[in-house]
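Hello K.,

You asked for the raw outputs rather than the summary table, so here they are, unedited. I folded two proteins back to back in the same session to keep the settings identical. This is the first:
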Amino acid sequence: MKVLLSKNEIFAKVKKLIAEVLNINEEIITENSRIIADLGAESLDIVTLLMEFEDAFNMKIPDDEAEELLTVADVIDYILVKVEDKAPA
């Protein structure tokens, strides 16, 4: 039986993790927020965020794919695809 997280559930979890790691208010985080330019993440923050996403969603994010994750929406869409790929039929 497939049990998938909805896009809204993933967004809520991603937003919470970003807010915790960057020490910012969740309310300023939107899907269009750019993680570095808009939310102020630095290189160490990015590494921490990637590890948090990997732990929270039980997945691995290769470096070459991580470089493509520029906005919150990019992260959500990436996780949606990976979670669907892992779900048993």
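The second followed immediately with the same parameters:
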Amino acid sequence: MKLKSPSYIFIILSLFLGSLPAYSQQITRTPYLQMLGEKSVQIRYRTNQAILSEVQISSDGKTFNRIKKSSQTNTEHLVLMDSLTA
């Protein structure tokens, strides 16, 4: 899939804690893209503690109007972003 310039997709990965003290979690496997399709992508990563996660996407780097949040804490994170456009 080739994105047209200057269309950029910025992905921000934010980690949220359940009952853990602030900033005690660490990403132990860097986020990476998997199953890249025409209008969807899976984002995977791993953390050292079970936490909630949130992925935000922006086409201009300023407005993050696409947000996916997890409903359960986990250490193996998989977030499907669908209905994407170039």
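The chain has one domain: 10-81.

Happy to rerun anything if the numbers look odd on your end.

Regards,
P.
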